[in-house]
Structures are given as structure tokens and as C-alpha cells.
Amino acid sequence: MASGATDPLLPRAGAARRRPATGGWRSALFIIWVEVAERFAYYGVSSNLISYLTGPLGETTAAAAAAVNAWSGAASMLPLLGAAVADSWLGRYRTIVASSVLYITGLGLLALSSTFSSPQSQQCSSSGDGRQVCRSSSVQRAFFYVSLYLVAIAQSGHKPCVQAFGADQFDATDPGESSSRSTFFNWWYLGICASATVTAAVMSYVQDNVGWGLGFGVPGMVMLLGLLVFLLGTRTYRFYDGGGSGAFSGVGEAVRAWRKSRRRGEGGGGGGATVEAEHGELAEEVRGMARLFPIWATCLLYGVLFAQPPTLFTKQAATLDRRIGPSSSFQVPPAALQSFLGVSIIPCVLLYEHVLVPAARRATGVATGITMLQRIGAGIAMCAVTLLVAALVEMRRLSAARDADPGAAMPMSLWWVVPQYVLFGAADVFAMVGMQEFFYDQVPGALKSLGLALYLSVLGVGSFISSFLISAIDVVTRRDGGTSWFDDDLNRGHLDYFYLLLAALTVLDLLAYVYFSMSYIYRRKVVDVQ
């Protein structure tokens, strides 16, 4: 049941009648704005992080890519813990406020840590091939990583709660508001992608040309502004009671009831049926969560692919001629090319909402045009195509590097890598938004934050898998004096092999996904057009 806009910082006892003045698009817009600010802050750090690690901190390309993936994985996995805290104890509103304050603190410390890095403070030595390698001191690196992971901890409470809290503003039992919820997920993603696009273009330039202190400090100020906007909308929000005991304690109760009923059933007693009847609904929720596992597992490779644009795509772009024109002295920051993800996503969301959905609705009779699982599958298939394109472009880049005169600029424009960003953005519209809606919709009502944390855990586990793959391949290909696929001089490496490997794995993963999705039974029947 929904309750009116009373003080959310006070404990709630029992469900109250919702006032019509709360919820809806007015409330959702306040919540979207705080998420736009959070995405600006997050991408202000993550989009160019590999450049900071390989620059001021002096790490190798492989080590930096693995470190970025590990941090991204932690930032995406910790929301499982944040969702548990929100659903069982603090509630979504208070979790959002507390994590936002922690977020601002972490970003402030991150900006402070960057002021400690300077060429004078770096420790330099010669590598085996004669190149000079400079790294910052261990104290500087420790301070930086503590600050960085504080941001990841802050995201653990922010990320699963804000989107669930936004979706809560639309009543699933009201026909008008229910139809608005699917639209909310599309516009939600459009908003955060617009924020990420601006961030990648603006903050990467500030970080590369002005300074890292300001480059990390501006996201902190934007996050503070976002928190203030969120607080302004407090009286308009619609709050939901969790039933008093917390969602996770309810799941635990269901598991205990199921085990107890099995023991009594095996013993031939008649009490098992009574216990199962009392806790049947909770036990069904546990079984429903278990049915999500095959879909979750077959989405993991998408998380691996999602980790590539801010890491290897960025290092690949850094080797190209990034001038806007032949006579221009301005160079586009390599991380700024990630803005093409948003440039692709924004029109694709609009085309999906206003062209594809109406056309598919007429063909299938399904209110959303295609089902959530079909949407995710289409996105995974598009990722395979994207990786093939990236591999072909990398082959062309390596060929151009071999043909170029030693010491000459790369005779290949940055525009060659733009298609892989655009295709990946289009794939996101299907896979990413589809996962958000699927995991939110298919978990029990009291576990909505957990559902969105499950979607985020796909990205988290995928980042860890990517980190492991890069580290393992780096070790194997360096063995016996060989050249790493991820050599610091990418002209000697083989990113094309890595992209082809990921493309092959994506095709195999897609086959497994189709198998499990065809047998999946939705928790709620897909609504047909009347």
C-alpha cells in the first residue's frame, strides 16, 4: 500500500491511505534529476579513470584496465548490500540521502588525493625494454584507492534505491499509472545517458587539459546540487510500507517454512500441509527468485562487454589522430568519444518508444510491443555485431600503424572508432533498459530494490570477469618473452584478438540465453492490447 507524503525520516507503522497529490510524473522528475546528477558524478570519475591510472599514477595498460574493471565490479555488486539495507531497515528515501552524503564525501577526498600526484612525487625506473616507467608513491595510491572505493560504497545505496523509488511513484494497480511506468524506464535511461554524454565530453577535457583536482571536484559539486533538488521534492513523494518485518526477513521466513514443511511431509505428519498453506505465498516468492537465476547468468557476458568502452575502447582511441580537422590544433580527449554512446542512445530511445513499440504492438498484440526478454536478447545480439566491427577497426588500425613511418602521427582518424560506440549505444537501449525493467518487474513487491541490484550485479560480475580475462590473457601472452595483447604500446598488442574472442563468447551466450528465455514463465502475465 502507498502512503501520503509524511515525514520520511520518521518510522512508519502500518499502511496509510495514499493521497492523490503524491506520486506520478511530478515526483518522478525530482528523482530523475538526482539520478542525472549521480550519473554525472559517476561518469566524471569512471569515463577517464584509465587515463588517470596510466598517467599520474603510472600503471600499465593491463593493470589499469583490470583495476578499473575491479572498481566498476565492486560499484555494481555492492548495491546488493545496499538494497538489503534499504528494503529491510532504512527504507529507500533515507538510504538515498545517506548514500548521497557519503558520495559527496568520497568525491571530495578523490579531488584532494589527485592534488598529491605530480611528476616530482613519482618514482621512476627503467623497464626491461629500456622505457622509463614512473609510478606514484604507495601512500598516494593508497589514499586514492580508499577515496575511489568510498565512492563505490556510496553508490551501493544510491543506485538500487533511486530507480526503484522513482518507479514507486507509479501505482501498478492503476491502469493509467501502470502504463506510465514502462515509459518511465525509457525516459529514465534517456536522462542518465544525456548526463553521461555531457560528462564524457566536458569532464574528460577538463581532466586532460585543466587538472584532475577540478576534474574530480566538479562531479562532487554536481552531486551536492542533485541532493538539494531531491530534498526539495520530499513532500511530493509516495512512500510504500514494507510490511513491518522487512523483505529479507520475509524471504528467510519462507525458506524456513519450506524446509519445515518438507521435513514434516517426509515424516508423514499432517502439519506440513498447514505450514505450507500459511507460508505458501512467501515460498512462491523464493521460487520466483530462483527462476531468475538462468536469465541473470546468461546476461553476465553483457556485463563483460559493458566494461570495454571506458577502458580498452578509450586506450584504442588515444592512439588515433584526434584532431577535428587537418589544420586544427585541438585534440578530442579519448574519453570524450564515450559521448557517442549517449548520442546514439538518446535518438534510439525516442525511436524505440515512438516507432518500434507502436509497430510491434500492432504485430504482436503485446502492450509493450515486444516482451522484456525479447528486448534483452536483441541487445545481446547487437553487442556481437558491435564487437565484430571493433575487431575489424582494430585490424585496420594495426595495419595503418605498421605502414606509418616510425615516430610519425597515426594516419587514421578518430572517426573510425565512432561506429563501435554508436552500435554499443543502440544495443544498450535494448539490453540495459530491458534488464532494468525485467528485474524490477519480476521480483516480489517488497524486493524491488533487490531486483534493480540484481541488474546492477550483472554489470558488477561482468566487470570482475573482464578484469580476470584481461589479467589472465596478459600473463599467458607475456609468457616466454611474448608480447601481451594489451601491451602499453597498443601498436604491438592485439586488441583485435580480444574483441574477436568476446564476439565468439557472445554468440555462445546468446544461444544459452534464448534457450532459457523461451522456457521462462513471467511472474505477471504480459499485458495484451485490448
UniProtKB/TrEMBL annotation:
The keyword Membrane applies. SUPFAM superfamilies: MFS general substrate transporter. Gene3D superfamilies: MFS general substrate transporter like domains. Keywords: Membrane, Phosphoprotein, Transmembrane, Transmembrane helix, Transport. It is found in: Membrane. Pfam families: PTR2 (PF00854). One of its GO terms (molecular function) is low-affinity nitrate transmembrane transporter activity. The chain crosses the membrane at residues 187-206, 212-232, 292-312, 332-352, 373-393, 413-431, 452-477, 497-516. This is Major facilitator superfamily (MFS) profile domain-containing protein. It comes from Oryza glumipatula. The lineage of its organism: Eukaryota, Viridiplantae, Streptophyta, Embryophyta, Tracheophyta.
